[in-house]
Structures are given as structure tokens and as C-alpha cells.
Task: inverse folding
């Protein structure tokens, strides 16, 4: 049995997708198409290709369109909807809201952004997470981006920076020799992370990671060389179509 087979995944699809306007004025970003296939369908197929049995999809913006699309996919009964009806709860709040669906078997689970396309080997990421006993393991690569996570020499998370504004956030103290990597939109999370998170509300999981990293082991796994495309902007769809058939 491969490390990740039978695990659960959470696919973040609730956001407003403002970077993908004007498409998201009338549709959720999850239904943007790359070579005729929606991001939602592509990432559900990607997760299933690793033997992931249960997939939770969080929804808010044009939720009905996503729910209708899921009904057309193969084996829709294995896909669970986490509907943030009143407002989008951001990544941290959405994770906590979906908690009841993610605790099956007490196993670590996958969390992925719907607007990311990648050929990352999830088995490798899951195995790295299990070996380190971290509360979360982030897939990262060495590539240019506006925001990056900062790690020490052991790939323990230590901070974050905004390359546009030169803002830095540190979990404890500044590191002079930190390593900067860009997040790939995929995490493995252990259920015990919930014990350290707020019990509800609207908040970013990135902010929580930085706050918690001083006292909880949060690791990065470098998978530079794999394709990672953020399909959150109209111009990136053409780039994605050149990489993913």
C-alpha cells in the first residue's frame, strides 16, 4: 500500500477568485477550464490518482455551480461538500469548518488549493510528513513569487516574506541565513494541528503557521523540478495549457 492511499483530502474552492476576473464575476474559479477540463475536475482526478478515497470540497462563491459540476463527475458520492454559506472563511477558517470531515481514522490528510496545477508526487510528500512527525508539511519549490516561506537549514518553517513590500514575519527571531521557498499550494496536515488553531472564524492558515512554528514542528519539502502553476490569473491559463494536456 502506498503511503497516501485511503487518505482524505480537502480541496479549497470557496474563494472569490478576484484575480481571475472577469470570469469569476459569474463563475467560481474552480470551474475555469484548462484545455477543456475544469480545475475542479483536474484536481479531483489528480488526488484520486494517488488512491485518495474521500475528497472534501469547500464552497461559497457560486457554490451551486460547483455542486452541480461535482454531480457530473464519476463517483460523486465520495466527494463531500463543506458549504461556507454565510461568508468565505479563508484558508484557516475553512480548514477548521471542514474539520468534522477530516478526522476519519486520525490520519494526516491532504489540503490543496483548487487553482494550483502540479505533478508533485503526493506519496513522496506524505512519506516525508510521516517521517518528520510534523504537524504540517508544505510542498515548496525554488521559484520566483511575490510571497515566500522562510526555513532554517533543516527545512523547519521559521518565517514569511513579501517580496513586493519587503515585509517579513518571523515565528520567533529573525534568521540571517534563512532559505526562501515558494509554496506550491499543497500541504499534509496532522489532525493534532487543530488543537493549536482557533476553533472558528475567518483567518489565514499562513498566518497561523507563522505564529505556531516557534513551538510546533512545521516543515517544508522541496520538490523543485516539478511543474507548479498557479491558475489564479487569466494569463496563467495559457501557461497551464502548455504544460497540462
Result:
Amino acid at each position: 500500500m502506498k503511503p497516501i492511499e485511503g487518505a482524505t483530502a480537502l480541496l479549497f474552492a470557496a474563494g472569490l477568485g478576484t484575480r481571475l476576473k472577469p470570469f469569476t464575476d459569474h463563475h467560481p474559479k474552480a470551474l475555469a477550464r484548462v484545455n477543456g477540463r475544469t480545475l475542479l475536475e483536474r484536481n479531483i482526478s489528480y488526488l484520486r490518482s494517488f488512491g485518495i478515497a474521500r475528497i472534501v470540497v469547500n464552497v461559497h462563491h457560486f457554490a451551486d455551480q460547483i455542486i452541480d459540476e461535482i454531480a457530473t463527475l464519476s463517483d460523486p458520492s465520495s466527494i463531500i461538500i463543506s458549504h461556507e454559506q454565510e461568508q468565505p472563511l479563508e484558508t484557516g477558517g475553512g480548514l477548521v469548518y471542514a474539520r468534522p470531515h477530516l478526522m476519519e481514522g486520525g490520519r494526516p490528510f491532504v489540503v490543496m488549493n483548487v487553482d494550483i496545477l502540479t505533478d508533485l508526487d503526493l506519496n513522496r510528500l506524505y512519506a516525508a510528513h510521516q517521517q518528520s512527525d510534523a504537524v504540517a508539511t508544505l510542498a515548496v519549490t525554488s521559484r520566483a513569487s511575490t510571497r515566500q516561506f522562510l526555513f532554517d537549514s533543516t527545512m523547519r518553517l521559521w518565517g514569511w516574506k513579501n517580496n513586493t513590500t519587503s515585509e517579513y514575519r518571523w515565528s520567533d527571531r529573525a534568521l540571517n541565513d534563512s532559505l526562501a521557498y515558494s509554496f506550491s499550494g499543497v500541504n499534509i496536515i496532522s489532525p493534532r494541528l487543530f488543537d493549536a488553531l482557533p476553533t472558528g472564524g475567518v483567518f489565514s492558515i499562513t498566518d497561523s503557521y507563522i505564529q505556531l512554528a516557534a513551538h510546533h514542528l512545521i516543515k517544508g519539502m522541496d520538490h523543485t523540478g516539478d511543474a507548479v502553476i498557479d491558475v489564479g490569473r487569466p494569463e496563467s491559463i495559457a501557461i497551464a495549457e502548455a504544460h497540462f494536456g
